[in-house]
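fwd from M.: "can u put these together and see what the complex looks like"

so here's what she sent:
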Amino acid sequence: MAIPVSKPLSLSGLLSEPLPDPLALLDIGLPAGPPKPQEDPESDSGLSLNYSDAESLELEGTEAGRRRGEYVEMYPVEYPYSLMPNSLAHPNYALPPAETPLALEPSAGPVRAKSTARGEAGSRDERRALAMKIPFPTDKIVNLPVDDFNELLARYPLTESQLALVRDIRRRGKNKVAAQNCRKRKLETIVQLERELERLGSERDRLLRARGEADRTLEVMRQQLTELYRDIFQHLRDEAGNSYSPEEYALQQAADGAIFLVPRGTKVEAAD
DNA sequence: CACTGATGTCATTGA
DNA sequence: CTTCAATGACATCAG
C-alpha cells in the first residue's frame, strides 16, 4: 500500500486522484482465483510508476483531468452474453470492476515492482480493456470504420466509463498508427533530403570546376590580348613616326566593326 | 551509467 | 461546430 490514502475515500477524492491500477480492480471483478501477489505481472501497466504512468493507468493523461468523472460512474449491467464474442460470452463474464472506493485498494502503489515490460502479453490498452470488461477486442475498437464502430457500441450496453475507455482506446490506437505513419514519412523525407543534398553537392562541384576552367580560359585570353596590344602598338606610328604609348592610348572597336585608336578615357562614337 | 533509437501518448492545429 | 489526421514534444524502454 504505497499510495498514501490519507484522505477520506470520497468520490471527490476519486475524482482528483489518479485511480490505482485497473488490473487491481480486475481482481475484484473476477471470480475468486488464486491469490495474486501484489506484484502480479498482470497488475502492472508494464511501465514504471512515474507520474505519467501513474496517470496513464486508467485515467490516462488528459482524461485524467478532462474525463475523470466518466470513469467513476458505474452502472451495473447485464451483458447479453448471446451477443458477445465467444471468448467473452460466458456466464462467468463479470461486470466491470466496481468503480468504488474499494478500487482504491492499490495493488502495490507507486513503488510496485516493474514486473511487466513493453511487449508483454497485451498492450496497455488491451489490459485496460480487459480490466474494464470491454466485451470486444481492441483491434476492432481501433480498426473498425466509424459506422461499424458505432454499430458495435450500440450492440452492447456499456457504462459511461467503459464508453470513455473505448473511445480513448480508439483515439490512442488511431493516433498510434498516425504516429507510425508520420515517422515513416519523416524518415523518407530525411532520406530524400540527403539525396538532394548529395545531388546539390555534386552540382556545386561541377560548377566550381567549370568556373575554374573559365577562369583559366579568361586568363589565357587576357594574355593573348595583352600580346596583341603590344604587337599592334609596336607597329603604330603617328605622323611624326613616333610610337603610341599603350598607357595613353587604347584600341576601341566601333559598332560597325571599325577599329579606332583613342586616347584612354574617351569612348568611340557610334558611326552612322 | 549515459546515450540513442523506437515507440506510445498527449496537446494542438488545420482540413 | 465536430471530427480526425498530422505532428511536435515528452516519457519510457531496450539495447
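replying to her w this: The first strand of chain A starts at residue 249 and ends at 253.
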